[in-house]
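From the methods appendix. Each design record in this collection lists the tokenized structure first, followed by the designed amino acid sequence. Records were kept in a plain field format so they could be parsed without special tools. The example shown here is representative of the layout used throughout.

RECORD:
FOLD TOKENS (310 positions):
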């Protein structure tokens, strides 16, 4: 099950949100051509040692790994009254989790890291920078080089962003992708700004985001439901602190569905000429149908049913 999850789109990005073996870095989507052919080049990596104190101050993920590594000792204290088998099982589970997820990341001296990813489809290059840790060999594992990329230049889209999406929305969403790797809270806040730009482009009534989403509900109730959930994670990123990478990955996929509205709109416009050509021949008096929200309640006297911008 875990292997299957790692091979999914979300699983892949969740892996690189943490330290990952440089030789097992997943293949990503190229920001130039969009193909899933962007490979990390281990030979391109250049690193310089940095003190653990400095690494602690500049890398949130390294700091989190150190904090998580302290937890087993606390948990082990709570097993003092357990029977022998329960205690043994608890110790095994706790240490297995600690060793796999945290210990490698802080084993040995950390380094500042730069490197490159290259697209095998279009030969485009992406610069990467972040932290590297060379984990010392143990009885069970050889020496391992782990990397945590915190900046990609240019930014790699975590979900595809269509050319039909208006530029102001794209700019904010790409910023959300950029911040995902080193500051999830800022990423969530940027996602909220992308939602605000979507509402602005839709010319929705209302002073704040809540009122604008309520206005959208009258014509696109399904999209309004999705935006409501996205607004909550945006609020959390702006005003609180409970946002994880997996929360963001789910949110990005939800927003991707919302933004497909623009593709549906574009396809509608592309089919108008074909429709008109057919109807001119077989039914000259027919009009080109409007793209309407069929799930919205048909309110009496509601003139704002069509959602296509001219």
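DESIGN:
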């Amino acid at each position: 099950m875990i292997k299957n999850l790692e091979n999914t789109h979300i699983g892949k990005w969740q892996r690189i949100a943490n330290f990952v073996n440089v030789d097992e870095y997943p293949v990503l989507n190229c920001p130039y051509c969009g193909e899933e052919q962007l490979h990390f080049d281990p030979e391109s990596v250049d690193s310089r040692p940095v003190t653990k104190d400095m690494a602690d101050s500049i890398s949130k993920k390294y700091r989190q790994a150190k904090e998580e590594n302290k937890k087993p000792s606390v948990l082990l204290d709570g097993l003092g009254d357990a029977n022998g088998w329960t205690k043994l099982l608890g110790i095994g589970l706790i240490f297995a989790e600690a060793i796999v997820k945290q210990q490698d990341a802080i084993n040995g001296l950390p380094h500042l890291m730069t490197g490159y990813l290259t697209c095998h489809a279009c030969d485009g290059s992406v610069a990467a920078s972040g932290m590297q840790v060379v984990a010392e060999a143990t009885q069970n594992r050889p020496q391992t080089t782990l990397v945590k990329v915190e900046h990609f230049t240019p930014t790699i889209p975590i979900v595809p962003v269509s050319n039909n999406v208006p530029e102001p929305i794209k700019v904010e969403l790409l910023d959300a992708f950029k911040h995902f790797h080193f500051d999830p809270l800022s990423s969530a806040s940027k996602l909220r700004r992308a939602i605000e730009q979507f509402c602005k482009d839709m010319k929705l009534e209302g002073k704040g985001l809540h009122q604008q989403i309520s206005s959208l509900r009258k014509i696109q109730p399904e999209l309004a439901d999705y935006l409501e959930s996205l607004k909550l994670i945006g609020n959390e990123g702006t005003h609180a602190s409970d946002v994880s990478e997996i929360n963001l990955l789910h949110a990005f996929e939800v927003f991707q569905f919302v933004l497909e509205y623009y593709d549906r709109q574009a396809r509608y416009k592309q089919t108008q000429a074909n429709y008109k050509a057919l109807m001119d021949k077989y039914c000259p008096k027919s009009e080109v149908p409007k793209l309407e929200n069929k799930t919205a309640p048909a309110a009496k006297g509601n003139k704002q049913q069509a959602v296509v911008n001219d």
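APPENDIX NOTE: Residues 167-269 form one domain.
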